[in-house]
Fold these 2 entries.
Entry 1:
Amino acid sequence: MPSIGKMAIMNGWSLIQNRGGRGEEGMKLLNFLKEEWVIPELSGTDKPSVLKELSKVLMKPCGATSPEELIQVLLEREKLGSTGIGEGVAIPHGRLKRLKHFFISFGRSTRGMDFDSIDHKPCQLFFMVMAPENSAVENLNLLGRIARLLKDPSFKKKLMGAKTQKEIFQVISDEDERY
């Protein structure tokens, strides 16, 4: 039986995933994700190393002095419960005071890796979100949009089948424009 904290996290993700599109208007991923922030094959084999790779590409855009600054924020959030939401997907996220808008990086691990996912299965697709500190509603909307897009098996299959950074970005772009 999961702990009350774990159940709250699981129920929170359920709420995010089932928002039904409310509040997601204008929350296009491409407003916050650039092609150069897409990592076609993550080399990390555990949670800290994957978070480091995803953080490195957002270090300068977020105004961080090192990837560790972002990793610390992400690991603090992970203490509340894993952001591995199941079905091969993780959406690590955190908030930074100095940010004025969101930043997203994306990484893929074709082999999959343990990310303490709620379904105990390996994660392959990672959308990392860095958010402004005072953005609770917008943050929930953006996380919900990502979760909703990733519930579509054909989208996940296309992401896994894309060969290059450019192809992956195009898959995300095409899906982002559909909604």
Note: The domain at 4-19+30-178 is CATH 3.40.930.10 (Mannitol-specific EII; Chain A).
Entry 2:
Amino acid sequence: MRELFISVKRYSIGLLVVIGGIGLAMAISPLSISGRGSDGEIIAEGAGTTLIHGGTGAPSFTPVITTIAFHAERTGSGVTGSFDCLALMPEANTGSQSGQFTVNAMNVVGQVTGLTVSGNTATLTGTSTITGLGAGPNVSFTFVVHRGGPGATAVLTVSSLPTVPFHELLVEGSFRVHGED
């Protein structure tokens, strides 16, 4: 009986050593569970619905909502990522269609090529193709995003409309900034 107990004890210790070794190997391995290498460290990411502060501006102040999604990660050669922002406005300023956000005011589809982080704020830069307001190919953009959930803020500026920054307030979703704290 004592020999059986010793055998089980040795087996248990060996099993713990193997499990611990696997755990240690996973912790220091350059590949994460998601399959991204250490070069694919996501620094900023998020998605959600925002409201453009002031809408279209004076004199009409037509409301504008956006659906936004982005991510930026460090790579061996710099930064890569994507940025998408679809801005919709209502069909009409008054009446039953004033609450139907179906008109494409602007669509920005971009590739992130630059990234800086300062505390809870990330600044993503890159080039995009834009339809609607500010339309054009190879349009430079800057997106300054503050970490948080609803209530977090962001500002989008595009080179085709340099004097019109879009101040966005997150109403649904989450913006995440990893790195410096």
Note: The helical segments are 2-28.
